[in-house]
Each structure stands twice: as structure tokens, then as C-alpha cells.
Amino acid sequence: MIKENISKVLSEQVNAEYYSAYLYLIMSAYADRTGFKGVANWLFIQAQEEMAHGTHIYQHILERGGAPAFADVKTPEAALGSIKDVFKKVVAHEEYVTGLINNIATIALKENDHATYNFIMWYVNEQIEEEASANEILNKIDFIGDNLSLLYNLDVELSARVFTDPFSNTAD
Ligand code: OFO
Question: How far apart are CA 45 and CA 9, in angstroms?
Fold first, then answer.
């Protein structure tokens, strides 16, 4: 049976994952409306991944006999100035989420909850990827500068991203 404080912090993470989904949908809508359909696609898939994360953590709480707690999902800040601004915010947000995940790992270890520790390690690794891919795009945007044709190429590149359920091959 999962301890109450672990169940609480995991429930907060479910909320944070849905917040992330909202954030990326807001960004995706901004990109779509400004003509960057590829960027919009990348962000839309990012939002889908966040929802999959939220559901996965929710299922873990239930599987361990816990009671998921539900709180309001905050509305993310909608003001975005440019595509570069979007990716600066993606990087900053993923760094923030990494901190939340690390905190869960720390609490799980302190509570001797190796099941949650093992579970959350998937997210520790996922955050390495999340930060790396967002940073890679931000670096490309920095390199591109004002070159519109390179920016167009990046948009085409990001349009190729497709959603694959990260948990389709696991029993989690
Ligand atoms: Fe849930 O991975 Fe991004 O935040």
C-alpha cells in the first residue's frame, strides 16, 4: 500500500503533467496561428505525451492502493512573443519538471518506497530526453537567427514528429 505522502506528491505530479499539456496546447495554438504548422505539430504531440504521463502516474497511484487527489489545473501564461520565446519557455518548463521528478525520487527513497522509486526512474530518464530535445531546437533557432528559409526548413523538420504512446509496450 502506497504511503499517503507519496500518493499526494504523485497526485501533484499528475496535475503538473496536465498543466504541461495545457501549456503545450497554448503554445501549439500560438504556432498554428502564426503560420508555423510544423512547430504546432511538435508542440501538439508534446501535449499528448504529457497527458499520457499524467494518466500513467494516476494509474500507478491506483495500482498501489492509493487515492488520487484532484486539484484544479492552473491556466498557463498565454503571452508568447515569438517561436524562439516559445522554445525558451519549453526548456525552462522542462527544467522545472525535472526538479519535480527529482523531488519525488528523493521522497520515495526517504520513505523506503522502492516501487515508487523504480517507477519514477522512468521519468528521470525521460526528463533527460525532454530537456535535450527542447535545447536542441532552441540551439537551432539561435543558429538560424533571421534566416527565414532556414526557419522554414526547421518548421518542415518539426512537422515530421508523430505521436507514439510511450507506454504501449509496458505493463505499467
Ligand atoms: Fe512529462 O515530460 Fe515534459 O514535462
Answer: 26
